[in-house]
């Protein structure tokens, strides 16, 4: 295990000296560990050069992926053993709002041993942290047709819509003003990709991390927003392809995944959230 951690440290820093300092070990000891590991594997993992540190070989790059995942899973298993009731849940902010009552009070009634911590973020960030084993259970969105790398269960799906103020008029030869979310948001991605495929130019008129700001901007006529149909605010209209010249949009799917192979409690939490999700209501 020490050899693997030393290899990971050198690979991340590109330096035996910096890796040794981070591990509070001497550089010769770290070097010795790497040499023993390479001898065991029968391949060179690092290319060494004076003054330039250490660079991964092709074998080293492939081994790094395996080692990183393995050590994260080991560390997570240790954490589970020390805190068997801890569950880290990641979900979009609107999903938290929908499940708020359950998360704040009801969940411990079903799972008394649970120590739940939650984080809200963009689905792309949540999935990244789930892959890094920094989250145990994740509720996330994906656009229709997106390849999923995780075993997950669907919660619901709904169409995306172009939304604008009733009185807005956008000439086909003008830039489409977008009221949208920050970079990385799936609704923003769907809007820009659809317009780009149509060859229609666009500009950012309003950017926010908050759905109510994007809704307000669309209602005020500041720009056109892409939102799930359940989130279309009063005072706006849904722009149609034939009538308004806006391109079709993919459906968006909300799903849940859990590292149940590490701790059965993670899967129990996912089961509970699925059971209490119910029929779709207003959600982002």
UniProtKB/TrEMBL annotation:
Query: For this protein, what is any one GO molecular function term?
Result: DNA-binding transcription factor activity
Q: What name does UniProt use for this protein?
A: LysR family transcriptional regulator
Keyword Transcription regulation attributed: yes
The family line of this record is:
Belongs to the LysR transcriptional regulatory family.
Matching entries from Pfam families are given as: HTH_1 (PF00126), LysR_substrate (PF03466)
Q: Give residue ranges for domain HTH lysR-type.
A: 1-57
Q: Which domain of life is it from?
A: Bacteria
InterPro entries attached here? LTTR (IPR050176), LysR_HTH_N (IPR000847), LysR_subst-bd (IPR005119), WH-like_DNA-bd_sf (IPR036388), WH_DNA-bd_sf (IPR036390)
Q: Which UniProt keywords apply?
A: DNA-binding, Transcription, Transcription regulation
């Amino acid at each position: 295990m020490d050899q693997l951690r030393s290899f990971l440290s050198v690979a991340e820093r590109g330096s035996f000296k910096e890796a040794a300092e981070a591990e509070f070990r001497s550089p010769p000891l770290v070097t010795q560990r790497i040499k023993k590991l390479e001898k065991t594997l029968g391949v060179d993992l690092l290319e060494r050069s004076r003054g330039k540190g250490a660079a991964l070989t092709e074998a080293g790059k492939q081994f790094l992926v395996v080692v990183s995942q393995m050590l994260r899973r080991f560390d997570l298993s240790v954490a589970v053993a020390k805190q068997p009731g801890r569950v880290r849940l990641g979900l979009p902010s609107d999903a938290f709002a929908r499940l708020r009552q359950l998360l704040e009070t009801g969940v411990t009634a079903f799972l008394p041993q649970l120590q739940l911590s939650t984080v809200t973020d963009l689905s792309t960030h949540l999935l990244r942290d789930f892959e890094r084993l920094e989250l145990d259970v994740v509720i996330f969105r994906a656009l229709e047709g997106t390849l999923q790398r995780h075993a997950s269960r669907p919660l619901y799906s709904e169409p995306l819509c172009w939304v604008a103020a009733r009185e807005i008029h956008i000439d086909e030869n003008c830039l489409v003003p977008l009221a949208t979310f920050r970079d990385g948001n799936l609704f923003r991605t769907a809007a820009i990709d659809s317009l780009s495929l149509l060859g229609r130019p666009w500009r950012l008129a309003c950017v926010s991390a908050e759905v109510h700001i994007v809704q307000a901007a669309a209602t005020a006529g500041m720009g056109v927003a892409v939102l799930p149909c359940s989130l279309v605010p009063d005072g706006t209209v849904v722009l149609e392809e034939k009538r308004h010249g806006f391109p079709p949009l993919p459906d968006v799917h909300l799903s849940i995944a859990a590292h149940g192979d590490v701790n059965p409690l993670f899967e129990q939490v996912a089961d509970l959230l699925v059971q209490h999700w119910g029929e779709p209501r207003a959600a982002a």
